[in-house]
Design brief:
Elements: H1 2-19, E1 22-25, E2 29-35, E3 38-43, E4 46-49, E5 55-62, E6 66-75, E7 81-92, H2 97-102, H3 107-123, H4 128-133, H5 135-150, E8 155-162, E9 166-167, H6 169-229, H7 231-240, E10 251-252, E11 255-256, H8 258-270
Antiparallel strand pairs: 1-4, 2-3, 2-5, 6-7, 7-8, 7-9, 10-11
Length: about 280
């Protein structure tokens, strides 16, 4: 009976030793291996062997890109409180897994502290309107600060994004009211300009129509003059084109010229100014 118990114990020890003699690391992971509590090595993806009961895998850390969302509440230069969400994308530098694991007890808290400090110092020198147009500048400042301060700890920062600027709710309502009023004013100006153009077009059309009617009336008078006075009307039009010619008076030495009388009547019907001499 005792021999059986001893045999079972020996088999268990052998099996435990076999299972404790190897470990597997998945892709994009790194295993921290310690021997009797002291750092031994970093193992990457694949099958690895270790000394049973002496070596142990302390922890496994991910080599994938991580994202940390940080909400920063601060005040602008013009005393407006804003909330600024910042997204930080970072990863462990391959070959420096030891520093990333051992040097910081909580790397996320350290990143949050650097982000908050840098955002507050940047926004404090900006007005609210400037902060909206300077999101990329804020993000670059945060990224530069993180790279300078966290590089020695084995962390690489892939990207830093300032995703929004969120003023206090009352400030947002005021900004929306101002924007709405400005849009209404622009719409009123555009409508007034359109009305002005429409009225100008109507006035021009009315002028063109009146000119057309006047020309039609003039042509009608010419046609009537042609029918009534014949050659006298034609002569009146020809002489109208020669304003420098001054006709003799209707009465020359007491003699009244019938052709000149017909010509004068034709000019009157055609609406032409008289260039005849005065009766003498």
């Amino acid at each position: 009976m005792i021999a059986t118990i001893v045999l079972v114990i020996i088999l268990l020890i052998i099996l435990g030793t076999l299972f404790d003699g190897y470990f597997i690391v998945r892709t994009r992971e790194a295993a921290i291996l310690e021997r009797l509590g002291k750092f031994q090595k970093v193992a990457h993806a694949g099958l690895h062997f270790k000394m049973p009961w002496i070596d142990r895998v302390r922890d496994k850390i991910s080599l994938q890109v991580r994202q940390l969302d940080v909400m920063v509440e601060t005040k602008t230069k013009d005393n407006v409180f804003v909330q600024i969400p910042v997204a930080v994308q970072y990863e462990v530098v391959q070959g420096r897994e030891r520093e990333a694991y051992y040097m910081l007890s909580n790397h996320e808290q350290q990143i949050v502290a650097y982000v908050q400090d840098n955002v507050r110092s940047s926004v404090a020198n900006m007005n609210l309107d400037d902060s909206f147009s300077s999101k990329d500048t804020i993000a670059r400042n945060v990224a530069a600060s993180l790279r300078d301060n966290m590089a020695e700890y084995g962390w690489n920062f892939v990207n830093t994004l300032v995703t929004d600027i969120r003023p206090d709710s009352r400030v947002r309502e005021s900004m929306n009211s101002i924007n709405a009023a400005q849009r209404e004013r622009e719409a009123a100006v555009a409508q007034a300009e359109a009305e002005k153009i429409r009225k100008i077009g109507e006035a021009e059309a009315a002028v063109i129509e009146a000119m057309g009617k006047a020309e039609a009336e003039r042509m009608k008078l010419k046609a009537e003059a042609y029918q009534k006075y014949g050659d006298a009307a034609k002569m009146a039009l020809v002489l109208e084109a020669l304003p420098q010619v001054r006709l003799p008076p209707k009465r020359v030495l007491g003699f009244k010229c019938p052709c000149l009388t017909s010509w004068a009547s034709a000019r009157t019907s055609l609406g032409l100014a008289s260039n005849t001499g005065t009766d003498g």
